[in-house]
Amino acid sequence: MAATLVERQDGLVTVTFNRPEKKNALNAESWADLDRVLTEVTTNPDDRALVLTGAGGNFSSGADLSGSSDATSGLTGRGRQAILHEMRVVGDIINRLHRLPKPTLAVVDGVCVGVALGIALACDLVLASDRARFCEVFARRGLALDGGTSWTLPRHVGLRRAKQLAFFGDILGADDALAWGLINEVVPADELPKVAGAWGRRLADGPTTTLSLIKRQLDAAGSLTFEQALEDEARSQHIAYTTKDMAEGIRSFLERREPRFTGR
């Protein structure tokens, strides 16, 4: 059975972690698949949005530390090596997800733990079911933070709550995750596929280049002065004016209809 499933439909790429018997714990094959898909989505103009989710009622329980399937290949499939180098591979993959020039959506049902939480927080949007559970489990295993959560967690929930989650490793339910700002929305579990499909479709049908510019603007906002942000807006707007989608957006406004963007 494949560790991940990849489905493409009209510009929407859906990646499903597919080890339900392990609560979708991430093994070497999982990382290799994610690495490959990120390269494809980055370079393929027909891939316009990415959704990450999990099979069997869970997002992912984090890294597979059982050693049963990766005894010779290591955590990431590149052979046994120092954990420093393993984590640099993982970090590079998650950074590429964070920097993907197309919108990304994590759809979380059930558990989202450890490095899997890092994957979810590296996405632009996080949609969760009412039975989703989030956990920064590292300290309970004697481990430091990874998956980019030392950076993403305090930016979403603030430093005090980030320390609370990281020090204690307690499970955070979906409603609290929403109230703390960790995720975007909570929906009933039986409605999650429908709402996720609608969100994914809206992202894939959007003006792809413009969305990539907006993503860069917002991600960079914390490190820019107001003056720098204004200059970046001017340059980004100049680029947006060159796209066919911008022309379609104006045309649809004048014709009083919904725009039909092509991602060009």
UniProtKB/TrEMBL annotation:
Record key words, sorted: Isomerase
Q: Entry's SUPFAM superfamilies?
A: ClpP/crotonase (SSF52096)
The record's similarity note reads: Belongs to the enoyl-CoA hydratase/isomerase family.
Among InterPro entries, the record links this protein to: ClpP/crotonase-like_dom_sf, Enoyl-CoA_hydra/iso, Enoyl-CoA_hydra_C
Named from the GO MF annotations, one term is:
isomerase activity
- In its UniProt entry, what is this protein called? Enoyl-CoA hydratase/isomerase
One Pfam family per UniProt: ECH_1
Gene3D superfamilies, A to Z? 2-enoyl-CoA Hydratase, Chain A, domain 1, Lyase 2-enoyl-coa Hydratase, Chain A, domain 2
Classification via PANTHER family = EG:BACN32G11.4 PROTEIN (PTHR43459:SF1), ENOYL-COA HYDRATASE (PTHR43459)
Which species is listed as the source? Pseudofrankia inefficax (strain DSM 45817 / CECT 9037 / DDB 130130 / EuI1c)
